[in-house]
């Protein structure tokens, strides 16, 4: 891609084949990111609608009042995270698990847990 300049208009027709290829890769990466950003909340809404009672029972966070019987995406995410990390300690040792455990220990929300 040619260097962008406010005074001189540039477009892809003036760039070479590698510039066009890089521009296509950038557009594809942005499209993937936007699609995944849209899919992720949907994946969290499904368990909120189908398993609301179980999610509220496993939710360890504090809320002043519940605004709805259906939990939000943040509540579902924290419940799934809590359930995952409570069961991850029962899995046999492996390198991937060691990385997850180290990241878990460094996370500020879980700094007070005795691991």
Main pleated sheet: none
Shape: elongated
Sheet-strand content, in percent, reads under 5%
Residue runs with pLDDT of under 50 for 5 or more positions: none
Rounded mean pLDDT score: 79
The SSE string, one letter per element, is HHHH
- State the separation between the terminal residues, measured CA to CA: 50 Å
Radius of gyration: 22 Å
Which class of secondary structure composition applies to the elements? mainly alpha
Determine the oligomeric state from the structure: single chain
| Number of structural domains | 1
Q: If you had to describe this structure to a student in words, what would you say it looks like?
A:
The protein has helices at 17-50, 52-58, 73-87, 95-106. The chain has 115 residues and is mainly alpha-helical. It has one domain (12-110). The termini are far apart. The mean pLDDT is 79.
């Amino acid at each position: 891609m040619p260097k962008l300049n406010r005074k001189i208009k540039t477009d892809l027709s003036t760039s070479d084949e590698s510039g066009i290829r890089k521009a296509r890769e950038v557009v594809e990466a942005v499209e993937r990111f936007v699609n995944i950003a849209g899919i992720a909340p949907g994946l969290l809404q499904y368990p909120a609608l189908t398993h609301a009672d179980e999610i509220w029972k496993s939710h360890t966070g504090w809320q002043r009042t519940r605004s709805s019987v259906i939990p939000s995406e943040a509540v579902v995410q924290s419940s799934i995270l809590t359930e995952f990390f409570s069961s991850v300690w029962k899995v046999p040792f492996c390198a991937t698990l060691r990385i997850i455990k180290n990241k878990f220990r460094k996370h500020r929300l879980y700094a007070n847990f005795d691991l």
